[in-house]
Amino acid sequence: MEALRLEWDGGVPKLWTAGAMERQGLVTTVSSRARTAVVVGWVGSVRERVAGARGLLEGWDRPQAAPRLPTGDYAAVLVCRDRILLMRDEHARIPLFFRESGGRVTAVSTSASHLGGGSGLERRYFCRYLTGNMAQPHSELTPFAGVHRILGGEVVELSTTGQLRGRMPRHVRQAHEPSVQAADEPDLGGAAKDLRLALENAVGRRMGRMTACHVSGGTDSTSVALLAARLLAAGQGPPGGLVLLAGRFERGELAAEQPYMDEAMAEIRRYAPAARPMIVDVDDVSDFDDFPHHAGDPDEPHAHAFRAPFWSRLHAAAAQLGCDSLLTGCGADPIADANPLHLHRLARTGQLRQMTRQARDWAAGSERGLWEVVSAHVVQPALPLAAERVTAFVRRRGTVLDGLGNFTRPRWLRSGFARAHGYREASIAESRFVFGRKPEQSLYEAANYIAAPDPLSWRRAPQDGFFLSHPFLDPEVIATMRRLPAETAFHPGRPKAVLREAMADLLPSRIGGRVVKVPFNQLYARGLRTHGDELIDLCRSAKHPLTAEMFDVETLCRAVREAQFGIGSSYSWDRLNSSLALVVWLERLDQRSRARRAAMPVIAGT
C-alpha cells in the first residue's frame, strides 16, 4: 500500500501522498517556507496529528540536528532546505522503504512492491523471513533486490538530490538493572502506581475523536478500556465517543469467555454510560478463511495471515461506526508480566543459589517443572541453536513438526537453498535478536514484533480509517516495567502482579483474579479441518519457480496433515503458517496490481 512516494525529476525532489488517506487523517502534511513533512500515522498523540507533524519538522529542520525521536506510530519524510530525512518511530508499525543504486536513492515509498516492480527477488530475504515470525520488521532486507527497509528508530539522511549521506542507527533504550537491592527501589504498591500513570498516559495519547477498544474479558484489554472510559468521564481525555468492540462465540470452548466479556462491558459502561457496545458474532469465522486474499495481497509475506479473518471482522465493525482509533491489550503478556529471563542474568553472574530458588518459585507459580523453567529461561537463551537441535533430535520420531522450534530449519525448506542463501546466518541473527547478550533486556525488543497483527492493520487502513494501537507497547510503559527489579514484579501464582495491583480499584474481581484465558486453538483447529485440503492443493498447484526452488512441496503438505492431527507445537505451527503464506504471496506476486492509488502532489520541487 502506497501512502506516500518521493521521487526525483531532474535532481529535484517531488513528493506525493495518497489523497484518500490524507482526507482520513492517516497521512498528515505540514509545510513552512522551503520545508515539508509528510507523516504517515501520528506523532505525539492521535488527536494532535498536525501539531505532532509540525513539531517533528521544526525539531529536525536545523542543520545537523538529531533530536530523539518522539513517541508515536509513524513513518515520516522531511524535505528540508539542505537535506531530506526518512524516519520511523522505534516500534516501526508503519513501513517505509527506499530504492538505492550506486549510493543514490532513486525513490522512497511505504510500499516495497511499488519500488521493486520489475526488479529481481532477494533470496536472502526469504531465508530471513522463514527463521521466525519476528524476522521481517528488524531486517533491512526486503523481497526485492535493491529495495531497503528503514528500521525502527532509524533516520536516513539524503542530500536534496538523493545522495545517501548516512543512516543513524536505531536507539536502544537502556534497561536499569541494579545488581544489588537498593533501598529506594519501589515495592509492589509504588511500582503499580508508576505503571498506572504510564498506562493512563499511553491510552490518552492513542484516543481519537471516536475510539474503539477491543474487549475480550481478559485483564489486559479490560484495563485499557477502563482507563479510556475513566479518562473520558473525568474530562482528562479528548472529547469523543467510545466503542466497546468484542467478538462473541456462542459455541465451542471460546464460549466460556462470554461471561467475562459481559462483566467487563458492564463495568466499563459504569464509568462511561454512553459507551456503545459492538458485539460481533464470530462463530462462523475460522483461521485460513479466504487465505489467498489475506496472504496474497500484502506488500510482503504476512506470517499471521491465517488469523486475519477474525481481526478483519472486528475491524470492519469498528470502521462502520466511524472509529478513528482502535486500542488493544496486545503486548501485555511480555511487557506487564514478570520477566522470566531474569533467571538467565542470575545464572551468568554466578548467583546460582538465588537462581535455583527463584526458578522453583517460578515453577510452582506456573505449574511447571523446575527443569522446564531452567531449560526455557537459562539454557535455551544461552545456546539457542544448539538447544533446538537437541530438542529436534530427541523429539522427532518420523514426523515433520515434532521438535521444530523458532530457529531450526524446517524440513520442507530445501537444504541447498538454505546453504546458498544464508539460512544459518539468518537463524543466528534471529536468535541474537530474540535473546541477545542480555536476554532479560532483549525480551522487550522482541515482544514488540509478536504482540499484534499490525501488517493486517496497515493493509486495511484505507478502508477502516484507523491503525491498530497498543498502549502496552508505549515506550513509557516499557521503560516503567524495564526498570523494576524482578523481585518486585514476580509473585508466584499471580501473573502480571504489578498490572493487577495498578488496576485493583477498577477491574472487577472476577477479571482481576483470573490467571488463565481460553486460547484461540479452536479457530486454528477448525481452520485446518475446513481448509487443510485447500492449503495442500495451493502448495501442489503453485507455479512460481521460487516455490519449488525453496520448498520440498510434499514435505510441506505432510506438515499440513500433521498439524490437522494436532502434531507439533505453537512454534512449529508458526513456521508452517509462515511458509504457507509465502507460497500464496509468491503466487499472487505477478497478479497483484501495481496500479498506484490516486495521489496528490505535496511539493513539486524546492
TrEMBL record:
Pfam families, A to Z: Asn_synthase
Coiled-coil annotated residue ranges, if any: none
Domain Asparagine synthetase: 195-586
Superkingdom of the source species: Bacteria
Protein name: Asparagine synthase-related protein
Organism of provenance: Streptomyces lancefieldiae
